[in-house]
Task: structure prediction
Amino acid sequence: MKKFFVLFTVCLCLAAFIAPSFAEDKIITAKIQSVVQAKDRNGNAYTRVIVEEPKELQGVKYVAGVPAMAFGATAGPASALKAGGILKAVVSEREFNGRSSYTILSIIQ
Result:
C-alpha cells in the first residue's frame, strides 16, 4: 500500500509539471523584424521569422523580438514574407525558460 501511495504521489507531481508545458494555439498579427531561410541538419528547409511583441515588466513597456518558426508546407509561404511587413498567422505558442516562441501552423492572407 505504501508503494502505491508513493507511486501515485510521484505521478501527480509529474503531471503538475508536465501539464503547463503543452502548446497553446492562437492567432497573432505582428510586425516582422527579420526573415531568414535555412536548412536543418537533414537538409529540410525552414524559415525563421522574428516578430515584434509588446511586453511589460514592472511597469516598463518594451518591444521584444519573438521567433516564429515555419517548417514543412508553411516554410515556402513564410519565406516570401519581408521585414517591416505584417505577419498574420495561426501559431502554436511555447515557452521555455521564460522565453516565448511560435511555430507557424498556417499563414492567414
